[in-house]
Amino acid sequence: MLGFATTLNSANLACYSCTSSAIQLCNSQKYNFYLSSQTPSFLFCISTVCRGNASLVKAMAQVESTTKSSSSRTGEKQALISLSDKRDLALLGNGLQGLGFTLVSTGGTASALEAAGVSVTKVEQLTGFPEMLDGRVKTLHPKIHGGILARRDLKHHVDALNEHEIGTFDVVVVNLYPFYDKVSSTSGISFEDGVENIDIGGPAMIRAAAKNHKDVLIVVDPEDYSALLEYLKGDQNDDMFRRKLAWKAFEHVASYDSAVSEWLWKQTGRDEFPPSFTVPLSLKSSLRYGENPHQKAAFYVDKSLSEVQAGGIATAIQHHGKEMSYNNYLDADAAWNCVSEFENPTCVIVKHTNPCGVASRQNILEAYRLAVKADPVSAFGGIVAFNVEVDEDLAKDIREFRSPVDGETRMFYEIVVAPKYSQRGLEILRGKSKTLRILEASKNKKGKVSLRQVGGGWLVQDSDDLTPQDIQFKVVNEITPQENELRDAEFAWLCVKHVKSNAIVIAKDNCMLGMGSGQPNRVESLRIAMRKAGDEVKGAALASDAFFPFAWNDAVEEACKSGVGVIAEPGGSIRDNDAIDCCNKYGVSLLFTNVRHFRH
Ligand SMILES: NC(=O)c1ncn([C@@H]2O[C@H](COP(=O)(O)O)[C@@H](O)[C@H]2O)c1NC=O
């Protein structure tokens, strides 16, 4: 058995027992005995006086205990660093070392620090235990967690540290195994690999340090390294800085855990919503105000695993224009959701979340003009969405096109959203106005979950992904529709899905002619739609988001009298036969889809 030597000053080491200065580094784990964080090497006395004297080890433990408690009291500074994301590690390591910190690290982090020329003590040297179980146990040790969790203002905490020869940590820098990236990678991951990527020791250290943030600074984000170093250079009296780091640390762990639990629920193979779940949200931007100027507001991006590469407005790139407002986000979302559904080149114009103009044409310029024409009054100040690139010609048209209302006023829009812009197209649109928001969005993923808040709770449902291709348009009366009428009905059906209930859309030749939305009764929506369609209603298709409760002297008869050629509705009313008889009488085809598209 070997005896150990210690003093506080590493330059002046001597054996406690024999006072010999014949001190050597000990390479054998078995005999390692940590002395103090200022002398983090493993030392032993090779004097013949000590050699083989078992009692010396005990004696030395007492000496070291004294040494350690005095080191803590004399403000010896230790930082614990364990990072998967090793970005800016050299900046951190050099910065802390320059400020007089002793660095303690897990294996990979220690190697990276050493490679960056920073001296470091390995956690296993401190704990006297090797990292084991394939890294499942590295830092889960009282010498680590005691040093993080002990309150410096409680004597019995400090005494306990001294008794067990534990040094304190003033700074803990940890980030976690990249579970999120691994399980969401497109190449996929096995269940076993997923499990191995669940970090255990990291969250334990983060939580411990965040709990004891009064004494320990906890950093989980490389973006905070500079602020940490600045803080350490100052008087360190800003408690709010510590609290903010602690908040961020718990948030980091909470998001991480929500990803793990979301993934595990999927691994159970159950096709139902989980009994409870957490949605991780990340602030994208503070908004000037909410729906109205007296309401505070912000926009958050959903970080759920199911939202990875889900496309949509939240991840759209803004190329130009005034900052997006709360209502802009809602409207842009509605426009983008609607236009993304069409296969052919299409333009959708939205006002207050309702499409007021929709047209599909091989020539997108034509589609754009038709979409404006559907309701030029509403289109003014609206959101224009395209499902194809905005090139130079289209951009010029968006810039120059004059309102069909007076033939003079140039059309004005809040937002243009498209999947792509040519360089020239973008330049031209930028020139239209300083404020015009230009968004580049990627297509929405199908099969998502939709959440909506009500007082005290959230409603959760699958997104409404059905398209006309998934639906059978069944002729239920004696009038067989023409091929073009069927296509018009499908087009109107796709439009009506995006209109607020009660929703009626009249369309012909891949162009919306009129729509009625949000009325508390269907007849009123129908009348609004017919008024907008005007004479063009003749031979057009009409789609209703839900069945008609009454036919005679009601919406169905009014539609038939107006001259529509075909009506598409879900069916399912107890008075379906009235609708069938009514359509027979007026020579209008009636199609039942058996699918409802309420939008509340
Ligand atoms: N098990 C443990 O005791 C443990 N302690 C730290 N870690 C993690 O290990 C990672 C760093 O490892 P390395 O320094 O070996 O590259 C960090 O992301 C940290 O969160 C652990 N790993 C997983 O649980």
For the record, what CATH class of the largest domain applies? Alpha Beta
Shape: elongated
Q: Structural class of the secondary elements?
A: alpha/beta
Helical fraction: 25-40%
N- to C-terminal distance: 79 Å
Uncertain regions spanning at least 5 consecutive residues: 1-12, 23-44, 51-74
At CATH level 3, the topology of the largest domain is Rossmann fold
> What integer value in Å does the Rg equal?
35 Å
What is the H level of CATH, i.e. the homologous superfamily of the largest domain?
A: Methylglyoxal synthase-like domain
Mean pLDDT: 89
Describe the structure.
With 600 residues, this protein is of the alpha/beta class. The protein is 36% helix and 18% strand. The protein folds into 3 domains: 78-268, Rossmann fold, CATH 3.40.50; 292-301 and 309-440, 3-Layer(aba) Sandwich (Cytidine Deaminase, domain 2), CATH 3.40.140; 468-592, AICAR transformylase, duplication domain (Cytidine Deaminase, domain 2, 3-Layer(aba) Sandwich). Strands 10-15-14-13-11-12 form a 6-stranded mixed β-sheet, with helices on both faces. The chain has a 6-stranded mixed β-sheet with strand order 18-23-22-21-19-20, with helices on both faces. The longest helix is centred in the middle third of the chain and has 29 residues, at 239-267. The termini are far apart. Mean pLDDT is 89; it is low at 1-12, 23-44 and 51-74. It binds the ligand NC(=O)c1ncn([C@@H]2O[C@H](COP(=O)(O)O)[C@@H](O)[C@H]2O)c1NC=O. Ligand FAI binds at residues 82-84, 106-109, 135-140, 174-177, 199-202.
